[in-house]
C-alpha cells in the first residue's frame, strides 16, 4: 500500500503531466504589452497550400499595423477537426479560422458551385471566378455569420492512386476513392467508383494500408499531406475544385479596422 507521502507525490506528478498535455495541445498567443494577439486556426500542416498566402497576409497585417497586431498559426487541427473550423470563428474560440467548405456539405450551398465538374479550367481561373462571385454578393448568405478575410481554391481534381493504375473508365469501377463533399462524392459515383469519406490527414495512412484504392484530390494535396510516397499512379480527371475561406468573428473585425 502507498504511504500518504508517496500518494501525494504520485498525485502531484499526475497533475503536472495533465497540465503539460493541456499546454502542449492548446495554442497560446502572448503578445508584448500594448500588442494585439490573434490565433489563426487551420487544419492544414505547415506544407498546406493555403499556408504561404496566410503567412504573407499575416506579414502584411503586421506591417500595416506597425507591429501592433501579431498572429500565431495553430496548425494541423490542433483546435478541432476540419468540419468544426467554421464554428471556431462564429463562437470566437479562434480569432481567425480556415474553413474547407466541402467538409460541411449543405452548409454553404451557393459556394458549392466551385465543386462542380467543370473541366479544362485552370486553378487561377477558378480562383478568380470564386472571388468575383463573392464580391457580387452571391455568397453573402453562406457567410452571413462571419467576416470573410480572403478566399482561395485548389483544383482541378484527379484520381491519385495507391497501387492500382486507372487507365480506362472500366478501371474506375469499384475503386474505393476518398472524396470530400457532396459534389466530389457525386463525381466519383458517376465514374463508377465507391466514395469513401475521411479527413485529408487520414489519406496517407489509408492509402498505405489499402483501406482505400485512391483519393480524388488535386495535386496540391499531395504536397500538403505528404502522400507522394504512397501514391504510385495519377489519372488526370481535371474536374471540380475545393473552396477555402479564412474567416473571422464579426465582433472581432474592428481589431483589423483600427
Walkthrough of the structure:
The chain has helices at 4-25, 51-64, 85-91, 123-135, 169-172, 182-190, 203-209, 219-224, 254-257; strands at residues 36-41, 69-74, 96-100, 146-154, 157-161, 176-178, 194-196, 214-217, 233-239, 242-249. A 5-stranded mixed beta sheet has the order 2-1-3-10-4. A 5-stranded mixed beta sheet has the order 7-6-8-5-9. With 258 residues, the chain is an alpha/beta fold. Helices cover 33% and strands 22% of the residues. It contains 9 helices and 10 strands. Strand 1 (36-41), helix 2 (51-64) and strand 2 (69-74) form a beta-alpha-beta unit. Among the domains are: 36-104 and 139-151 and 244-257, 3-Layer(aba) Sandwich (D-Maltodextrin-Binding Protein, domain 2), CATH 3.40.190; 157-239, D-Maltodextrin-Binding Protein, domain 2, CATH 3.40.190.
DSSP E strands, number: 10
Widest beta sheet: strand line-up: 2-1-3-10-4
**Rg (C-alpha, Å):** 21 Å
What's the end-to-end separation, in Å? 63 Å
SSE succession: HEHEHEHEEHEHEHEHEEH
Quaternary structure of the protein: single chain
Q: What are the SSEs and their pairings?
A:
Elements: H1 4-25, E1 36-41, H2 51-64, E2 69-74, H3 85-91, E3 96-100, H4 123-135, E4 146-154, E5 157-161, H5 169-172, E6 176-178, H6 182-190, E7 194-196, H7 203-209, E8 214-217, H8 219-224, E9 233-239, E10 242-249, H9 254-257
Parallel strand pairs: 1-2, 1-3, 6-7, 6-8
Antiparallel strand pairs: 3-10, 4-10, 5-8, 5-9
Q: Could you write a compact summary of the structure shown?
A:
With 258 residues, the protein is of the alpha/beta class. The chain has helices at residues 4-25, 51-64, 85-91, 123-135, 169-172, 182-190, 203-209, 219-224, 254-257; strands at 36-41, 69-74, 96-100, 146-154, 157-161, 176-178, 194-196, 214-217, 233-239, 242-249.
Amino acid at each position: 500500500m502507498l504511504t500518504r507521502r508517496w500518494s501525494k507525490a504520485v498525485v502531484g506528478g499526475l497533475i503536472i503531466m495533465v497540465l503539460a498535455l493541456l499546454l502542449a495541445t492548446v495554442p497560446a498567443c502572448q503578445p508584448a504589452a500594448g500588442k494585439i494577439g490573434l490565433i489563426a486556426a487551420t487544419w492544414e500542416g505547415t506544407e498546406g497550400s493555403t499556408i504561404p498566402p496566410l503567412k504573407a497576409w499575416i506579414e502584411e497585417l503586421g506591417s500595416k499595423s506597425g507591429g501592433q497586431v501579431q498572429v500565431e498559426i495553430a496548425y494541423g487541427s490542433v483546435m478541432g477537426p476540419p468540419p468544426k473550423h467554421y464554428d471556431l470563428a462564429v463562437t470566437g474560440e479562434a480569432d481567425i479560422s480556415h474553413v474547407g467548405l466541402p467538409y460541411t456539405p449543405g452548409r454553404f450551398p451557393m459556394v458549392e458551385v466551385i465543386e462542380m465538374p467543370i473541366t479544362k479550367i485552370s486553378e487561377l481561373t477558378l480562383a478568380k471566378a470564386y472571388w468575383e462571385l463573392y464580391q457580387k454578393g452571391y455568397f453573402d448568405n453562406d457567410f452571413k455569420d462571419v467576416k470573410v478575410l480572403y478566399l482561395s481554391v485548389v483544383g482541378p481534381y484527379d484520381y491519385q492512386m495507391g497501387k492500382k493504375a486507372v487507365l480506362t473508365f472500366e478501371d474506375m469501377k469499384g475503386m474505393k476513392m476518398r472524396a470530400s463533399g457532396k459534389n466530389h462524392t457525386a463525381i466519383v459515383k458517376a465514374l463508377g467508383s465507391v466514395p469513401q469519406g475521411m479527413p485529408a490527414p487520414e489519406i496517407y495512412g489509408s492509402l498505405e494500408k489499402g483501406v482505400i484504392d485512391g483519393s480524388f484530390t488535386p495535386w496540391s494535396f499531395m504536397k500538403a499531406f505528404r502522400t507522394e510516397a504512397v501514391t504510385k499512379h495519377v489519372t488526370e480527371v481535371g474536374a471540380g475544385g475545393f473552396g477555402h475561406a479564412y474567416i473571422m468573428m464579426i465582433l472581432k473585425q474592428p481589431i483589423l479596422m483600427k
